[in-house]
Amino acid sequence: MTTTVAAYAAPAAKAPLERTTIERREVGEFDVLIDIKFAGICHSDIHQARDGWGEGIFPMVPGHEIAGIVAEVGSGVTKFQVGDRVGVGCMVDSCRECENCKAGLEQYCVGGNVGTYNALDKNGEPTYGGYSEKVVVDENYTVRIPDGLALDVAAPLLCAGITTYSPLKHWNAGPGKKVAVLGMGGLGHMGVKIAHALGAEVTVLSQSLRKKDDGLKLGADHYYATSDPKTFEELAGTFDIILSTVSAPLDFGAFLSLLRTDGALVNVGAPEEPISINLFSVIAGRKTLAGSGIGGIQETQEMLDFCAEHGLGAEIELISASEINDAYERVLNSDVRYRFVIDTATI
Length: 347
Known about the structure:
seven-stranded mixed beta sheet
């Protein structure tokens, strides 16, 4: 039998979110039922609820930064038991058979993974995300939240944490490497913490110096304003990796000029508009303009364990569900330090 739960949903594109009820599927043999305790608000939620990345599926219950407690397990579940602290990120299924899935890269499933919300599951039913009381998820797409991490600060790690951890690991951020984090927001602040914990020399590149004290406190060694033309003169040819977390179009030529030979500018922020680039920006210096998605399930667990080991949680502002629409506007105005998290008890 399905379970009716309270949730906050956008009834249509660009419409304010409102309280409603949704149906969660029956707990299957390999499913876990999770009592959601906290759900982060990601800029991705806003893009999708407002059709910024294409036509969405409505009504839409956003939320792919989910932290909670296992309330029920299916008869075949072996990885979790009732009472476990767990998380769910940006996907809840994939084909499990393609080369990428078998390699632990479910986020790059050849047939496309099933998003935690704004997607259709294998039965053709829409998926609904974490702005809700409960969720049913296959155990293979659920991760364990270590005891060393509080659930509220752990929730944003399920997107912001893994989205920055995965490329930093892939491009070998660590001792002897100079890493720049472009943008000091929900993703960027985690990028700073993680790059610092990996042992890299970390620079924040932000529009202004408004958040400089925060950046240095979170682990940055240097902090520069991109609105100052002298920044690009002073830092030319400096970085091994630039991790761009911004979702606005950039002058990619200018930022590529900050890379050393063989450096990489990796995008995890996704602007709604197409970008243009002069290819000589990458040809000169054998530079890479790249992108990175989230991480696979195994890597997401690795990231959570890493964050617990190093005491890394997100910097959050806890809100009630009734504040979601205000929070969306504040995210768009860069008025959050650094991640809104919904206390789902208020739904």
